[in-house]
Amino acid sequence: MIGLPDGGLRAASVVVLALVFVGAGALHFVRPQAFEAIVPPTLPAPRLLVLVSGAAEILGGLGLLVPAVRPWAGWGLVALLVAVFPANVFMATHAERFAGLAPAWALWARLPLQAVLIVWVVWASRP
Fold first, then answer.
1. Measuring CA to CA, which residue among 76, 75, 84, 78 is closest to residue 40?
2. Which key words are in the record (predicted)?
3. What is the dihedral of CA 36, 72, 111, 115, to 10 degrees?
4. What is the pLDDT at residue 3?
5. Which residues lie closer than 8 Å to 19 by C-beta, 6 or more apart?
6. Whole-number pLDDT of residue 107
7. Which of 24, 53, 69, 74 is 20 to 30 A from 114 (CA-CA)?
8. At 1, is the pLDDT very low, low, confident or very high (cuts 50, 70, 90)?
9. Helix, strand, coil share (%) of the chain residues, nearest 5
10. Can you give the pLDDT at residue 61?
């Protein structure tokens, strides 16, 4: 059975983060082309990177719901968030290519928000 941490805010955070990561990970398989477009061109095998990162998001999100592996899932998601940061930088520095997805200011604002997300995952997944 899924055991949520004591405290309403942490419990809610675990569920919200799990839904966000599982949902985002599933989108990697449903619409891989959208994610391939944000893979920096210097990286090889964009489709493979998209599928691997999608699977990691799904596994990490589900792992947050299992108390025995929650801390490990949290650290795995932190590693994933660090690993995909170059794609976020690529989007911000090539904002004209992604104008249909978001305005340039939002792509730049997303960069520091990655740190906020990392802190949130660490806090929610702690033992």
1. 84
2. Membrane, Transmembrane, Transmembrane helix
3. 180
4. 66
5. 61
6. 95
7. 69
8. very low
9. 75, 0, 25
10. 98
Round to whole Å and give the CA distance between 94 and 91: 5
What's the DSSP call for residue 39?
Answer: S
- Beta carbons within 8 Å of 13's beta carbon, 6+ residues apart: 120, 123, 124
* Residue 71 structure tokens: 């801390």
Residue ranges of domains in the chain: 8-125
Q: How many CB atoms lie within 10 A of CB 71?
A: 15
Residue type for position 110: R
d(CA 30, CA 34): 10
pTM: 0.89
Cβ atoms of 90 and 40 closer than 8 Å = yes
Q: Nearest-CA neighbor of 77 among 117, 49, 38?
A: 117
Render pLDDT for 81-124 as a digit per residue (tens, 0 to 9).
Answer: 999 999 999 999 999 999 888 999 999 999 999 999 999 999 99
Burial class (CB in 10 A: 0-12, 13-18, 19+), 106: middle
Extract the tokens encoding 43: 């990286």
